[in-house]
Every structure is written in C-alpha cells, then in structure tokens.
Amino acid sequence: MAAVSLSALFSQSRSDRLIASTIDGQAIRLSDFAADVAATIGTLREAGCRRGLLICDDAYWAAVGIMALLHDGGEALLPHNTHPESIASLQGSFDMLVSDRVWPGIEKQVLLHKRPAASDAIPAIDPANAFVSLFTSGSTGEAKRIRKSLAYLEAEARAVDAVLGKVAPANAWVQATATHQHLYGLTFRLCWPLASCRPFSGRTEEYWEPTLARLVAGSVLVSSPAHLTRLGGLDALPADRRPSFVMSGGAPLPQSAVDAVRDIIGCDVVEMFGSTETGVVGHRWRSRESQSWSPYPTVSVARDADGRLRVRSPYSGGGADGYVIDDLVEIAADGRFRLLGRADRIAKVEGNRVSLLELEEALARLEWVREAAIVQFGGDAVRLGAVVLPSEEGRAELEKLGAFRFGRKLRGELAAARPSAGLPRQWRFVDRLPASVLGKVSRGELLKLFERANP
Questions:
Q1: b/e code 232-241 from CB counts within 10 Å (16+ = b)
Q2: CA atoms within 13 A on the CB side of 406
Q3: What one-character-per-residue DSSP string does 301-317 give?
Q4: Is residue 328 included in any domain, yes or no?
Q5: Number of domains comprising the chain
Q6: What CATH number does the domain containing 132 carry?
Q7: pLDDT interval class at 361 (50, 70, 90)
Q8: pLDDT at residue number 289
Q9: Would you state the pLDDT for residue 327?
Q10: Burial class (CB within 10 angstroms; exposed 0-12, middle 13-18, buried 19+) of 295
C-alpha cells in the first residue's frame, strides 16, 4: 500500500477499524485516534494555543498533540531534552506546554488525555503552512531550532516507505526504544507508521526485558546505539517472536552490538544516516560487508570542494543548492557514499550530539578549572576525554582527592544539565595544554595523553 498523506490523514479512504496504536495495552483504532485529535483541537482552540511546546512520555499522545497543533496553521515545538534550563531557554517561543502529564512550575499547560469525542469533522491540514520545530546543538553548543513543514515530513515518510515498505510486513507493529522528541524517532516511530498504515506502540520502556516481551513476529524495532550496546546477557528471543529487522540511528553502531542483535533479537540491523537539518539521507544493512550508505529515493548526494557532504532532497532544505553538513565523505561511481568523520566539533556519542566547545566552556566556568580541552576517540564507539589545566583551587582539590576522584567531581558538576553519554569518561590533568606556536591546541598531542595512564 502506498504511503498516504499525513495532512489529510483522517479524510482519506481507510478503514476506521485499522489499529493505530495502543494505550495501556488497549488497541486504539484509527477512529479513536481521530476522535482524540478532534477533541484536542477544540481544547487547544479554547485555550488559545497555536504554538505548543510538546513533551510527551507516550508517543501516541505525542501524535495526537502534533496532529491537533498543526491544524489552523499551528506549530509543535519538540525540545531536545527536558532539562529545566533547556525549557527555560525556549520561553517566548511557545504559548503553552502540551503534555500527557502535569509539569510543576509551568503556569500554562494543556494536558493530553481521553476526552468526550468531538462531533466535528477534522479538516485537512495545509502542509506548507504547518510546522514542527526541533532543536539540536549547533556549532556553538547553543540549542539550534530547525523548523520542518508538514510537507517536508510527508515527503520524508514517502521516501522511507519506498525502502522499508518492501521489507516490513504490511501490518507490522512498529516498536521503539528511541524517543519521538528527536527527528529520528519522529520520522520512524510516528510519521512512517502513520503514513504507511502500520500500528505503532506509544510506550517506551527503560529496560530491555519489557521491550523484548512485547515484540511479535514481523514487527519493526526502532532503536539506537545507546540501547543496542546494552543487550548483553539477555536471553535470545524464540524464533516465532523475532522482528523483521531492527533500525539504528544517531551514531554508527559498533560491530559487537550488531552481533548481539543477531544473537539475541534474531534479525539484521539497518542503520539510518541523516541529520535534523536534512532529514534521512541514507541507509545500510549491516548484514553486508560494505560500509557504504545508499541514498534514499529522491535524495542526491555530492562532495563539496572541502570534502563535506552536500544533500539535496524534497525535504532537506537549502533550496536548489541543497544542504551541506559537516561530515567528510567519499562518493562512489554508483552513488553510494562512505563517511570519513566529522569536520566540525560536534561529536555523536551513543546517538547524542555533543558540542565539544560547549563542554570546554562549561568546564572552564568551574572554579577548579583554568582551561580545558575535550577530545573524542574510539572509532565507532566514540568516547570523550577531558584534558584539564586546574586552577589554584583545583590544584589543591586534585592533591586532596587524587586524579580519579577529582575527575568524578568535575563530571558530577557537568551532569546536572547533560545526558551521561555526553560527559567525559577519561580525564588528564596537566600543567599546560599542548599547543602549536600559533596557540592552537593540538588534537594529536591531546590524544597522546590518553595513550598512557594518568600520572
């Protein structure tokens, strides 16, 4: 079945008895979904909310909130995390918080929950004038707002279905450990299943055991390196409950995790490559020897003069020139491409984009630090290391605590507003940062500090 239009999701010829999702184990049919969206549209209109900051634990309610907000030319803003600092930084960008739970300390909120069904028909959305905004780290480390029209999300869902629709059963359940608050999860666990008439699970479990318990034969699992690298020690799924395939995105998946997926979940992994700015760009099946990526249909890739990847597609933005991203690339004659590393200072650690500059600045603001430099190493399994020149107070703390405990202390200071995956795991304390004669810190010399034990 060809992908349908998200902008006219409830006015196209589809059976109202199609299962769209679940809530607490109960099936939600397309007619139930439409009723929840219609009721929420009325609530949002009554509250005067056209721009909603959407934060939902359950992906089903996120879908309801997005579809309701996009009517009447509205906008859904999906923050990249729920840290109070991040939410506070978006004040003035939205009218109200829209969520499936009550948030303390926020005055204007709309709570998503079951309401009496609205009798009004749901009109089609103008896809060119309805927007979802996502946030990601720019080169400065500050949250960068990326505005996506519904027309872009529809085009992306069609491109995805042209590839995945051939290998996923028509009625396959789409399960996920990846959040819908980022474009990867939004695309693959919400937009694609809605457009391709596949049911999706709204619930996201913290642990693998309940996730694996819900898998049924032929389903699709949308996951990420942050989860797939933690499969070790689990029992293998029986053959009659194995999914069609597992998706991974956000960062390269180590081969050890690919092997664990095959051994425990019993299927192959398809990796997705893209960015918040460009949407999905390419995919590769890890069952094959080649490390090259195949562009999605309607996507064209080119190598810029400085070696960076230029992407053109109906949903990538950037106009006729396309969008250039800071991944160095090599492109083969058949159009497939290999990634050669990042050209900027944004590291991808377990699917999280981490600004090395922002981490350095955050460390330098601590009273125990005079200067700091962050490096990444480890190949596919990227790790971060911090080289620190302590301040006078820091030197005294280092002598008192020792290098290991002092590093833990600094890590703890950073942890309040950052995911643990994006924090340095190794620390080196020096009398001066290695630099060239021009004063530029030498990455090569920094890396050498991690080749030996901390003095």
A1: eeeeebeeeb
A2: 26
A3: EEE-TTSEEEEE-TTS-
A4: no
A5: 2
A6: 3.40.50.980
A7: confident
A8: 58
A9: 87
A10: buried
- Distance, first Cα to last Cα, the chain: 63
Q: For position 240, what pLDDT does the model report?
A: 94
Segment holding 222, helix H or strand E: strand 220-223
Length of the chain: 455
Torsion of CA 204, 210, 212, 215, to 10 degrees: -70
Query: Dihedral of CA 440/444/450/455: which sign?
Result: negative
Q: Provide the pLDDT for residue 16.
A: 66
139 has a pLDDT exceeding 50: no
Q: Which of 149, 181, 200 is the last residue of a domain?
A: 149
Q: Is 313 part of a structural domain of the chain?
A: no
Give the range among 205-214, 295-304, 440-449 with minimum mean pLDDT. 440-449
Largest CA distance in the chain: 73
Q: Is residue 137 part of a domain?
A: yes
Residue 295 placed within a domain: no
Residues 6+ apart with CB under 8 A from 24: none
- Please report, for the domain that includes residue 407, its CATH number: 3.30.300.30
- Integer Cα distance of 205 and 27 in angstroms: 18
Report CA torsion sign: 114, 115, 119, 122: negative
Distance of alpha carbon 152 from alpha carbon 279, whole angstroms: 9
* Angle, CA of 47, 24 and 156, to the nearest 5°: 65
Three-state secondary structure call for residue 34? helix
Q: 232-274: per-residue pLDDT in tens?
A: 889 999 999 999 999 999 878 888 889 999 999 999 999 999 9
Domain boundary residue, one of 149, 180, 212 = 149
d(C-alpha 119, C-alpha 425), whole Å: 56
Name the packing angle between helices 30-47 and 59-69 (round to 10°).
60
pLDDT digit string, tens, across residues 272-285: 999 999 999 999 99
Domain span including residue 364: 346-448
Distances, alpha carbon 70 to alpha carbons 7, 277, 282, in Å: 9, 20, 28
* pTM of the model as a whole: 0.78
